Amino acid sequence: MVSNLLNTFRRLAGGMLVMLLTAGYAYGQDVQVTDARVSLLPGEQPGAGYFQLYNAGDEAVVLVGAESDAFESVELHVSSNQDGMAHMQAVEQVEIAPGERFAFAPKGHHLMLIGREKALKVGDEVDVQLEFADDQRLSVTFDVVSPVSL
Amino acid sequence: MYKGLLVTLASLWLAGCVDTNWRTAETHEIMPPLDFSLVDEDGQAVEAEDYAGKVTLVYFGYTFCPDVCPITLARLAGTLNRLDDDVRDAIQVLFITVDPARDTPEVVKRYTGAFGDEFTGITGERAEIDALTNRMRVTYEYETPNKRGDYIVNHTSAVFAFDREGEARFLIRDSHPITDAVADINQLVTES
Ligand SMILES: [Cu+2]
């Protein structure tokens, strides 16, 4: 009984892992994006996009931007804390060396998604195109979540 | 081992005499009592005295901020969730905007509603907000708007705790573990 449950859990977990990995399938399979979430609140306020990026290739990849049909504009941003002050600024690009991981995570790098083109709620999915320096694009499906769940 | 315990107990007992035994950062000596004339999320004129009787946690932010502000408020909501119900009933969180041009009462009400019943949005005249931030020596600054007219506001990231009489007691920084915030809020609520 217990081992049955465990097996079921393993299958589910395995399935979820495959889903997560294939969320960012394309781009020569060299760039893998997992755990993609858009943190949104009710209303018109901008959202924040978080994800893990893994460069499985043998050349550096450079993320230079993003866009989404669901938002008027998407920017690469970084939050920082300087002497107790919360700062936020746009970043031009993020370079990920071969074999490296890079986290877009709360209070650090994030996508800033501004101007909702349609109503979105927790549980919805949003497609975002990540744009790389060599004109490559990667379509990633983000889950809409509440910041309270992060 | 026993010696270490005795020293710990002795220092706890000594610390009990002054307002410096917080695990977070003490503010009583450096910050005046809570004092403001602003507008609440229902559009009503409010003063700091209206919030007396409960422990008040104050955070300065703006709703256009997608990352630091919601994450900080979410973390604070998570902190409150670790308290007993009767303790939580004695706490209110004021989200005071430093961006009243965009943050109308309606906007801050919808925004704070996502974090829990304890959270209330506060806005008001820019001059009144400045009077409050100057008194508390809290800083914020607007960045140049982009083509869309959007602008970023850099702002103090701490959460300030006031007791039931509105006296400043401690502040919680990002770097303080949640367990420390939980312990200090618990103590502040139960001391009175
Ligand atoms: Cu941002």
TrEMBL record, chain A:
Keywords tagged on the record: Signal
Highest rank taxon of the organism: Bacteria
Gene3D superfamilies registered for this protein in UniProt: PCu(A)C copper chaperone
SUPFAM superfamilies named among the record's database cross-references: DR1885-like metal-binding protein (SSF110087)
Keyword Signal set for record: yes
Listed Pfam families: PCuAC
Keyword Signal: yes
Signal peptide: 1-28
Protein name according to UniProt: Copper(I)-binding protein
UniProtKB/TrEMBL annotation, chain B:
Domain (Thioredoxin): residue spans on this chain: 27-192
Keywords: Copper, Disulfide bond, Metal-binding
Pfam families linked to this entry: SCO1-SenC
Protein name, per record: Protein SCO1/2
Positions annotated to bind Cu cation: 65, 69, 155
Disulfide bond residue pairs: 65-69
Signal peptide feature range: none
Organism: Vreelandella arcis
GO molecular function: metal ion binding
Database matches in InterPro entries: SCO1/SenC (IPR003782), Thioredoxin-like_sf (IPR036249), Thioredoxin_domain (IPR013766)
Family: Belongs to the SCO1/2 family.
